[in-house]
Amino acid sequence: MVYVYEFADYSLTFIRGLAGLLFFYAYLRSKRSSALFVALSWFFSIPVGTFGLFFDLRIESVFMGTSYSLLILGMITLIKEETEIISSIKSIYLIPLTVIIFSWTESFMEDLPEDSVIISGIFAFIMSMFFIESLRKFYGRDAIALGLSLAIGGIVTSFYPVVYEGYSSSPPEVLNIVLIFTSMFSILVLYFYYRIIFSEKFFKKVIEKTNFKPIEVKGVQIISPKEFENWKTTLNGYPLLAFLRSIASAEGWIIYKFSSVEGQNVIYPTDLYKIPEFVFRYFMEAKNKGVKGIVVLEGLEFLRVYNDFQSIAKMMASVRDYVFSHNGALIVVLSKEAWDEREFNPLIRLLT
Hints:
The chain is 64% helix and 7% strand. The protein folds into two domains: 2-203, Rhopdopsin 7-helix transmembrane proteins, CATH 1.20.1070; 219-351, 3-Layer(aba) Sandwich (Rossmann fold), CATH 3.40.50.300. It is an alpha/beta fold. The chain has helices spanning 2-30, 33-44, 57-82, 94-109, 114-158, 160-165, 172-197, 200-203, 225-235, 274-288, 300-306, 309-325, 341-351; strands spanning 219-223, 241-244, 254-258, 266-267, 294-298, 329-333. A six-stranded parallel β-sheet has the order 1-6-5-2-3-4.
């Protein structure tokens, strides 16, 4: 039975090392910091959960705290890369900082650093719930499954000191079961991590081209569909972000279509929340590449059929705020004849 125990422990070490290499490769391909933090988290988790085969609990606690700190930082970074939810919440970074400082401090001060392990598990559980709420709209069931897996892992981690203390008196069969379960659980977490980090959405770059002619346009421009046809020559080849319903796109544009029929790069008319999220991610990448962000939005009349005016106004206010906060430009294509003046005039005032 000892051989089974050692085999399970070595298997767990192999899984974690393989996961670290896999996600480090994802970082090299995507250049997204979230993948790097996840990879490092897996690497630091290698010496954790050995029940004394390699290290005592104090050493394991240091690695566990570091691993969970990087894991939480990876979740925060991924949420920040995809949404604007935590962009202004700087204090959230105190969570991974607290985990790593507490685990290191207690490991050097206590012979049995139970509290740091428990705190690591609790914070991981809390962040996993936040992870699900923030990213389930983007990654669907994979985000939910990964979040729940990490949450369960956080709960189990909190009980690790109890299991560790009973190691010497526990029959080998119990430890074998624990390690085999941990190995299987690690494979499950690895699978859902893989599903997200190696998804097309994660690797998709918003701005592909960089050899284009700069365009001098700023603020909010409100023009008619006929006027926009004259603008298309100027905008052709520029990596702007365009949300379109009826107008044909031009070369180099990043296109999303408004439609009630599902398809690639299609936004359903009631999914207004996606528009500010895509605009946010576009401006973040434009900033990183030193590109002036330009957004074209056409089809508000179509969206108005499916949504109330207040919802559209809130969405446009968010888009406008992103444009001005990133020194970008917003071109809104509107047909005045299609709007009631009681809505058209407030919309113009909101945007300008």
